[in-house]
Amino acid sequence: MRELVHVQGGQCGNQIGAKFWEVIADEHGIDPTGTYHGDSDLQLERINVYFNEATGGRYVPRAVLMDLEPGTMDSVRAGPFGQLFRPDNFVFGQTGAGNNWAKGHYTEGAELIDSVLDVVRKEAEGCDCLQGFQLCHSLGGGTGAGMGTLLISKVREEYPDRIMETFSVIPSPKVSDTVVEPYNAVLSFHQLVENSDESFLLDNEALYDICFRTLKLTTPTYGDLNHLVSAAMSGVTCCLRFPGQLNCDLRKIAVNLVPFPRLHFFMTGFAPLTSRGSQQYRALTVPELTQQMFDAKNMMCAADPRHGRY
């Protein structure tokens, strides 16, 4: 089996990651206690890509959760699927990075990184044939950006021949949480260009737009945004988790998508997206879905692909 090790860092990464695990556990017929209640053999055929099987037929996500403050981790642990994760895989500090990239990359993060790497190593050694790593993080904060990129470079050193994929939430032009987002993002991109093999970019502005325009939600919450992101992540990883011919591992996805090694930043399109009321009036034909896929309104990144510049 070609296994993946999933790492999520910082507040954004942990919240998106927790939602991602909810979605894929559901797709594979696994309940919040880790027990399988599915109805199809396909759900179990490649379940080892993301889950380890523990004693008593329990399935445990191959996930490492890291943060520099305990807050978000506690809410993940108290969430619906919190009991699914292995307690040893929660690695957190107490200080927080305060949206400061240098704190995540050089000071606080550097102190915690060894214990994160131990957990990653433990998970990687439990794999039969590890195909790579995936990291969920944001590029605007301190932990996800600073410590996330530090982790990528350390993992790169130790596993140079394994694929590194990231789901990175980038700061958007109009929607901003902190003043220092652009600095953190520039410093992170410099690392991602060198050390990641494929980066799926998401941004909040585009997600808000999708919620407003397409899904017709009047007051989208971060929960709605995370739900969109998890649907997109589930779609991107679908070909790794279920049997099929196309893009069946990370390297093949890279072969099909990356023209030059340093140009590995992808924007995700998602279809079908319709508002709740108008679902029954649409026919989901192939041309319709393809049209939606490439439509700027369905891109999870606030850049218009028709302009050819980003």
UniProtKB/TrEMBL annotation:
Pfam families: Tubulin, Tubulin_C. GO terms for molecular function: GTP binding; GTPase activity; metal ion binding; structural constituent of cytoskeleton. Residues 47-244 form the Tubulin/FtsZ GTPase domain. The keyword Secreted does not apply. It comes from the Eukaryota. CDD domains: beta_tubulin. One of its GO terms (biological process) is microtubule-based process. Its main location: cytoplasm. SMART domains: Tubulin. It is found in: Cytoplasm, Cytoskeleton. InterPro entries: Beta-tubulin_BS, Beta_tubulin, Tub_FtsZ_C, Tubulin, Tubulin/FtsZ-like_C, Tubulin/FtsZ_2-layer-sand-dom, Tubulin/FtsZ_GTPase_sf, Tubulin_CS. GO terms for cellular component: microtubule. Its cofactor is Mg(2+). The keyword GTP-binding applies. Keywords: Cytoplasm, Cytoskeleton, GTP-binding, Magnesium, Metal-binding, Microtubule, Nucleotide-binding. Belongs to the tubulin family. Dimer of alpha and beta chains. A typical microtubule is a hollow water-filled tube with an outer diameter of 25 nm and an inner diameter of 15 nM. Alpha-beta heterodimers associate head-to-tail to form protofilaments running lengthwise along the microtubule wall with the beta-tubulin subunit facing the microtubule plus end conferring a structural polarity. Microtubules usually have 13 protofilaments but different protofilament numbers can be found in some organisms and specialized cells. PANTHER family: TUBULIN (PTHR11588). Tubulin is the major constituent of microtubules, a cylinder consisting of laterally associated linear protofilaments composed of alpha- and beta-tubulin heterodimers. Microtubules grow by the addition of GTP-tubulin dimers to the microtubule end, where a stabilizing cap forms. Below the cap, tubulin dimers are in GDP-bound state, owing to GTPase activity of alpha-tubulin. This is Tubulin beta chain.
